[in-house]
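Hi all, long-time lurker, first post. I run a small reading group and we've been trying to get comfortable going from sequence to structure in the token notation. Rather than ask abstract questions, I figured I'd post a concrete chain and ask someone more experienced to write out its structure so we can walk through it together at our next meeting. Sequence below, copied exactly:
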Amino acid sequence: MLLPMHSQGQDRCVLTCTECKQRVETGWHCPGCQDYDLCINCYNTKGHTHEMVKVGLGPDEEAEGGDEGGNQGERQSRSVREARRLSILRSIQSLRHARHCGDANCPRNDCQKLKRVVLHATRCQRKAIGGCPVCKQLLALCCYHAKECQENPCPIPLCLSIKQKIREQRLRLRQQQLRLRQQQIGNRLLQG
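-- Answer (accepted) --
Happy to help. Here is the structure in token form:
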């Protein structure tokens, strides 16, 4: 259950262009919009109303300038991580709003979308076998939230059960560490 969040961010940064749906390593991210990224081609041809931030590291930039290129790549990588973190936090806020919103005609697009996602997740048959990408994304978002959540009760779906699993996982890890230390002490006593 926690695998999608655990493995998040371990692969190279890949953006999906909102316009052409192409997956690219270098592009432009809009910090003002929720999950709005453009490939370089769409950025140059279509543009965007908000100021965008260049993210990723293209092959032409990689080859330039030794240490400076490395520092620039590092800054861009931090920029991408920060943009994604902010995007996730906005998504969690939108999910929180959607869970509390009783307006069937709510003007917020993200509200309607997330209401449909939550409804889908309650009815989805594919998630039981781990094959639904929509359910996986919702689960990843809920896991990200649950790691820091202190609310009880919490309006975010699955938060309580995920927090319980995290506690159980931490308890098992502590028990394993304790057994390992006891084993090490026992081995030292036998050797000494």
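A couple of things your group might point at:
DSSP finds seven helices and five strands in the chain.
The first helix runs from residue 3 to 6.
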